[in-house]
Amino acid sequence: MLSSDEDHWAKYNQAQAGRPVRPLLIQALSYCHSPGKGRALDLGAGAGIETAKLLSHGFEVHSVEPDAHSENLIQSTIMQADPDYLKHWSHSVATAQDFVFDEHSFDFIYSGFALPFCPPEHFPAAWSRILNAVAPGGILAVDLLGPRDSWAEQPLISTVERSWVEDSLEDFTVLHFDEKARHGKTFTGEKFWHIFTLIAQR
């Protein structure tokens, strides 16, 4: 069960500090052959681990995180990697549904396990804006939840059908689209995961 504690995400993000970079980002970066020549977005940046990785790859990075305490944590993570990265980093406190996505404004968009927390009534529009924000040749790398996930019945969680995602990607080339269903754990306890991991290029 997801916590309704208003400090839940602050506690979660603090607990994430020091973990390895998520494999999805590492895999997605392998498709980038011109590092240092673009803007990247880390949507749902948490502790900033993936933000720091994107900075190390040469991107100008904008992180977005709804937790109001996140900026200092992300800044600390970046400084531990390389203080010089800070001049290539910017940050917004916002949700996926509230962040303003300019058309074709990012060469790389990453969102790890954040988009399912965009409420269902906002998810389709937010997803459309995210896709529209990917620049020509740009990479999109995201985790999404499928309908068999144990959180699917919770009213604030968005799940998607594989066919719906595929239909939305008519302007993209799908580089990787994996589906896993398994028992596992979260910050708050055990759950059944139904996960889609997607990497696509406009």
Automatic annotation (TrEMBL):
Coiled coil: none annotated. GO terms for biological process: methylation. One of its GO terms (molecular function) is methyltransferase activity. Residues 41-138 form the Methyltransferase domain. It holds the Pfam family Methyltransf_25. Keywords: Methyltransferase, Transferase. The keyword Methyltransferase applies. InterPro entries: Methyltransf_25, SAM-dependent_MTases_sf. Gene3D superfamilies: Vaccinia Virus protein VP39. It comes from the Bacteria. This is Class I SAM-dependent methyltransferase. It comes from Candidatus Rothia avistercoris.
